[in-house]
Amino acid sequence: MADGEARADDVLDAGNVDAPGPEARAPGRWQSFRAWRQTPFVLWALAAFAGLTALVFWHTFSGQPVLQSSDAKLWFLSGTVLFWLPLLLLLRDSPDNFAHGPSLRLPVVCVGLLVCLSGGLAAVTEWGGDLSGVLQDQLQGAPFIACVFAALALAFLPLAGNAVNLSRFQAAERRKTDVPRANIDGMNDSKDAEAMGALVATLVVGGIIVFAICAGIFNESVSFDNLIGIAIGFLVVGAFAVVVFMDPLSQLMPVRWLSRVFSFAARGARPLAAFYDAVDTFLVRIVAAMTGMEHRSVAARYGILGLILISLCLLGWYLPPEWGLIPCALGIVAAVSVSRLWSWVEDDRALAALTDFKPTTPYRTSMREDYRDETLLGFLFVFFLIPIMMSNAHWSGLFGPDMFQLPKGQETGFLDWFGYFGVTLIKAVPIVDWAEIYNFGQPRPGADSDLISMHTVASQHAVFMARSTVDLVLIASLLQAISITGRNRQQKRLYKAGTDPANKFRPGLIDRLDTFVEKAELRRTMMACLRPGAPWPEKHTTPAQAHKIHFNLNVQSTRPGLVDFRRYNADRLGQMHGEYKDPVARAFIAAISVERPDFDLTPRLVLLDNMAEKGAPESDLYTMLDRISTDLSETPANVNLTIEVLRSILFHTSRRAGLKEFKQHVIRLLATCQPGEEVIEALADIAGRSNPDAYQYTKVAAIEAIDQVARRQPTKQGVRAAMAILKQVQRCEPGTMTESAIRRILAGLQDLLKSLKS
């Protein structure tokens, strides 16, 4: 990641790439400062510092010590957030390099602050039993609570700001594509279906809530006897009958009339569906990104999510009960957001399989990670957050006094609440409700029990919501996991179906698998094809050696459980060979190229050019460039750097943002090519002479590369030629930063020319 935000001249230049005028070419210092992305936060920090300093001076020299009391000091401490917040916002990631994913700089600071806050509060509460009563009262007072929540805002708001920037960048990249994507969400029938689903879900959930409230109010005066059971039985039978006879019933006149009524209701419910979609998008794009889900490293995702949820659990338990509900609610929202992200990824995986991986498919996510384990980690903490919320709801008195009956009274601890929730969890397990049948968790006749029990209607509602949450979590996760397993098996069956045994290169009904299945099956197949006793392939292994010595490709057709990659999509095989770093996987694909006549191994540099031309995602471009850099450091003889291909890569990315480090790296590679005169000509075009790049940082990098090439083996003729080309670029008005770099380079080359003459 680049440090900081985009510079002012980059912003000015990006907005005037086609028609650079005098204002964009030569802004003053004030205009540049105003255009800088960090300017509002710098001014904010300066204003807050001035205000806080003025208050300290007033306290010290005015004779009116306004910060004398402990409460005043706590309020002042909470007010310092106005100064620290813009400083943390300065640590946001640069939009120029969001393709790398968020950096760890801002999450480390914010999560570290959250850990210190929760750990300090827990330590003071647990081991500060000998504190004076005044100090203990202060820990319960409004100034201290204000400090805690100010620190919470200081920890989460910068993460939210960074997530918003990342979401905007990803949205812009989804719009910037050479292939127009299908707009399935914009179809009227799709909108009506979503609206009807939202309406039905709202009515069902609302009906359940109303029924629960009525049951809690009237359960002592109204008997829910056999009449209710008869009604529910007929409703269930009617629902099954409607589903069974749906087609013939749809042709009846009353049903057609109801269909028109429902269609009208669906159109009226579109705002409700849009609201639910906005909430879902906010959870996935913003909240899930705040919890670290956009990071490439598994350790980073686990660490950020785990530390955030642990801190929220501690804050929920050790804060005053009425305030502890807020961190618990935030923790549940964080866990749900990760679950929704996982659901989005799985929906896109299913969509990719249905559309045969067409580039016009409107995916909502990048499908880079599975997020199954992250979802389970988040739900793990939900089972701790719910008993904490039950405890806070009871002791806060917000829902009435004495919600639950506590046999231990004030001595009731976390394990007691967790045990009670465990019994509730057993009773919430769907289908086989053995706990209710066998009276599990109830005291024996004539014996006392130390188990917490419900006491008021509010406690009944709390237990009902807890059981509902558990049911939703368990059922949703279980059904999704089962459907994923079945879909993976179905992909393999479709891949093998319809193949010709006599033609091992003829594909089945589909010619590729989704990314996650592909990776797992490739590893299984290549390990099965390794010849017994043969050495493992190395980086220098040739395709012929891989085919003859290391792999027996016929194993793919003899073992029924393996995927025969000889039938795999050729373009995808070439991309995999370029992207993969594992020498065994690359050698396996290379061995397939020996047998398959329509598949040739394309050099990684050419693959990168093709990807840039097709508008591939930034992460794929960076991955391929990293692989090329590794090849240059390990096997430079196998990498053919050419001016034409490198210039083509820069041309295809000249109008794309978010590739600062990518373009600079390609320019450095271009500067190493020969002959130097052609390299300088290509760099001059990039800097502004012909088909220039749209961003100042690329032009400046090209100018500096020209200086590097001219100094590599300097001659008087070569230096004069480089200076002449730089002056040509200068006459094309490339922009303020580039002109400044040209003047600096010209001065240095002039000195070099003088030394050569002497």
What brief labels describe this structure?
globular, mainly alpha, 758 residues, disordered N terminus
Short synopsis of the structure:
With 758 residues, this protein is an all-alpha fold. The chain contains 33 helices and two strands. Among the domains are: 168 residues, no CATH class; 72 residues, no CATH class; 153 residues, no CATH class.
Q: Can you describe this structure?
A:
There is one protein chain. This protein has 758 residues and is mainly alpha-helical. Among the domains are: 8-175, no CATH class; 530-601, no CATH class; 605-757, no CATH class. The chain contains 33 helices and two strands. It has helices spanning 8-14, 22-25, 29-35, 39-61, 70-79, 81-89, 105-127, 133-140, 142-175, 188-218, 226-244, 246-249, 253-268, 270-290, 298-318, 321-354, 372-396, 414-428, 434-437, 457-496, 515-529, 543-550, 555-558, 570-579, 583-595, 604-613, 618-634, 643-652, 660-671, 676-689, 696-712, 716-731, 736-757, and strands at residues 404-405, 453-454. Helix 4 (39-61) runs antiparallel to helix 6, helix 14 packs across helix 16 and helix 18 (414-428) crosses helix 20. The chain is globular, with a radius of gyration of 33 Å.
